[in-house]
Amino acid sequence: MAEKKAVLTGVHFMSGDIACAEGAIAAGCRFFAGYPITPATEIAEHIAARMPKVGGIYIQMEDEIASIAAVIGASYAGLKAMTATSGPGFSLMQENIGLAVMTEAPCVIVDVMRGGPSTGQPTLPGQQDVMQAKWGSHGDYEIIALSPSSVQEMFDLTVEAFNLAEMYRVPTLLMADEVVAHMWEKVVIPPAEEIKIVNRKKPNAPPGNYAPFMPDDDLVPPMACFGEGYRFHATGLTHDEHGYPRTQDSDVQMRLVKRLCDKIRKNADKIVRVEEVMIDDAEVVVVAYGIVARAALSAVKKAREQGIKAGLVRLITLWPFPEKHVARAAEKTKAIIVPEMNCGQMVREVERAAKTTPAYHLPKLGEEPHTPLEILEAIRRHS
Amino acid sequence: MMEAVEHPLLKYLRAAMIPHIWCSGCGNGIILNAFVHALDELQIDLNKLVVVSGIGCIGRAAGYINADSFHTTHGRPIAFATGVKLAKPELEVVVISGDGDLFAIGGNHFIHAARRNIGIKVICANNFNYGMTGGQVGPTTPLEALTTTTPYGNIEHPFNLVHLAAASGATYVARWTTLHVRMLTASIKKLLQRKGFSFIEVVSPCPEIYGRHNKMRTGLEMMEWFREASVIANFSDPAKAEITPEKIVVGEFVDIEKPTYEQLLYEKMAKLMKEESE
Ligand SMILES: Cc1ncc(C[n+]2csc(CCOP(=O)(O)OP(=O)(O)O)c2C)c(N)n1
Ligand code: SF4
Ligand SMILES: [Mg+2]
After folding, report:
1. Interfacial residues of B (vs A; Cβ cutoff 8 Å)
2. What is the ipTM of this complex?
3. B195: helix, coil or strand?
4. What is the pTM of this model?
5. A23 and A170 both lie in a single domain
6. Which of A70, A242, B75, B235 has the highest local Cβ count within 10 Å?
């Protein structure tokens, strides 16, 4: 249950960035470190105003590398911690996202995607970082990434991102876009007691017997924090269950990296969320996420009005990829359409899951997201 | 039969991590030794100590100390430590890292943490090069020194770390060499007792690599250099404390007080929370 005084229960009119900030505070986030960047700046500004009133910390660091490092430090000191950025800052964070993966530091990273590469289009939406979300840091790892389609979901999925980060001890990404971040919509913030809050597992073992990276059956190790008397060591080097470096031991590397991947892969059914609309008899299925899924939904409804059997799979979880849901939808349909604000990223995953069902990519770059009409035309073409 | 006696300082070390990785004649062991002596003399509660390191030979120090410890990515220990210190200001947060880690890749974090006066304590092992990666030039390598990437002599002007720290706003600044063990230990004790951002540069021998390339093949020869070149000048102008082959000015340079970031932060927070509840 969320902490009462921190939750602004009620009906609000908010921007996505503000809803995200409120979601974080409701989820129990009490540490934010960031560096200003459009279109994520308002998250930092809102948190800077709200955090001290609920006993939390806001610090503006010297860059995004420092921001994510401070977030990992605060997480290890026991706080729920977050940072928010956009493409250029997300790129700077990649090395330490790997550190958070390797040291299993629960934390949330918001990437409000704008047009890239490089400085790109600071004020326009993009979905060009979704593969970077999965593969951006070096080495093999699994991560969790969520994709909000509305201001309400900027609130809800930020709460969920914290819960998943704490549950699996993994950095969790909220892959928003400029439109959901800047758009203003109605947001319902539930009473604190209705907001489900997950906190990291604490060790039962007394300090002397605690092995900080010894997993339970769910593959997630309980987490002691600094100052609690456990006196443990953590490192980005390949380490054994005690946290000690074992850089020359292939068994240790295999065991560790496999577990880091498996704790997400084997729990994927519990993590993955999609929204399925009219897919049972659909002959054309649109797979979309983020703001684009809104246009896709109205396109699907319009197609139905015109007698075309269209359906929608909206990816709420991007990573781990909702493989089974896409595969199931693909089995029954003739064609899949994947509108994305990029040159073809998640469509590759869709193709992989869809096997023999063709997946057609509908790119859109450099301006506002796809219109319903553009998606409707694609549905017509392939129906 | 003689009873096995445990070394009185063993409790400060993480026995499972020993043997350490350092070469014989390396100064890192002396720094670690001075550090644990300071912990012992101050009777620091190990449950309230967090040691953070970056990547490098000296970066392994965090793992050897029997407190909460974290070995971050290269260059980021101060940024990580900032998160720890703000989240739990009651903890003593110490960063032990190298000249490359703290002043090349991590230089920005150093100057900003000092500017903010975050109460973390930084000890830098300055061995004039990148030991871990085999002895390349670094931000403190003296002019004309030979390293694996300056085979014809270094043409980069080195940082004067105590000047940089003082100018960035550090509230305690000192420099010692590994020859000045007693002064260094006393200085580390002060560092641990100060509230604000505090910094000690320890000029440290890397005979295995830096020394080998610069006609000081053993730890002893490097210590010989420190002995001949060191001049103690407490509270002298750090701007004039550049390290040259002829002169290594050591001593304390800054010892002042000003409000720390976490103090101002928590005061503001308390005030705002009080207003909120009224
Ligand atoms: C991002 C990144 N770049 C480069 C390296 C390789 N690397 C490891 S240690 C090191 C230099 C360490 O030098 P210093 O901090 O002076 O420590 P020393 O080994 O001399 O004690 C470098 C460049 C790395 N680990 N990470
Ligand atoms: S390479 Fe140099 S700094 Fe590193 S352990 Fe050996 S002597 Fe010490
Ligand atoms: Mg060095």
Report:
1. 14, 16-17, 46-48, 50, 52, 62-63, 66-73, 75-76, 79-88, 90-91, 108-109, 112, 265, 268-269, 272-273, 276
2. 0.97
3. coil
4. 0.98
5. yes
6. A70
